[in-house]
Fold:
Amino acid sequence: MLQAKNAVYCEGAVVNSDRSAVHTSPVDVSVIIPTYNRGPLLSEAIDSVLAQTCQNVEVIVVDDGSSDDTLERLEPYRSKILIIHTNHGGAPHARNAGMKVAKGRYLAFLDSDDRYLPHKLALQVQILDQFPDVGLVYSEFSGFGDGIAEEFHLKTYHAPAFRNGETYDQYFDASLSLKEAGVDCFPWSDRRIHFGDIFSHYLRVLFVFTNSVLVRRSVLDSVGYHDEGLSLFDGYDLVLRIAKRNRIAFVDVPTYQLRYHDGQISTTKRADGPVVFIDKQRQLLQIVERHAVQDAAYYRENTIMVDATMGKLHRALGVALMCYPGHEAEARKVFVEGRRYGLSVPWLMLLTFLPSFFRRVAMKVQEVIFRIGKKA
Structure:
């Protein structure tokens, strides 16, 4: 493993030892940037944090075993940031390595192919300072790249959450404009901050952009860090744990810029796209089962909602498996397991016994019918 100059070992990671030269004043926010072979994009991410209007910010870059030119690209920043090197263990592992050494009272995350807008941290710090009962604040964000240029991108990114006309007021129980809340963020003073206990809503449908969060360190110390067994939805799992015990705030102001490109970990627009999609469905099912079904008291009080959600997730996983040749038997098993939650899909079960051509045609027909129904 490549090591930083003048490095020391720290809890299984290698950390540059001149930390006092990086940050000597009290730290308000620690920004953790996990990176793996993203050398050409990494500088933009780091620069966007260093350009924040917020003061007392600590930048922690966790190099998760990169084999490209990441080390060379980090060299000019060595006096400005903390650099950690770990063996390759995935993004959750890298985020946890950064969290273990972070000194900030608030923590934020930035993927190394994305960017912060300059007001991000100042805005979110004000909100957490102003509302001590809020454990975490997340935000609207912008999407760019791969033919996408959208300043307000949340409703596109999480389209299913808003497909049926749902609004933020249905997820949150109160809201204030930034002006009413006494939060300074020109020219966004008329945009709103929403507050609420969102756990049950978030179990049912994804509407939190987890990359955009700013969270209290004390809250993380209480609920724990990222689950390193989850490769795609560790943020979803973490926010659910936080939301189960804390009120959540959402500020309807873009603070984060998400870059679309072929190298994204979660993209399905590549050769192994079907495998990534199946992994997504598996992990969603696993997380909801963990937080809703395995919590016996919560399940008793919310059986109808949980069963409906688990039924949909079993159906989604079964269809994903059914459409991937060679996984028909596993799809049937998932459909059978879904019966526990009221899932009844005899026609889908029948399709698993037919050639893949018929399954593809059936799914296309269903998609067309859904679009027609949506327009109607």
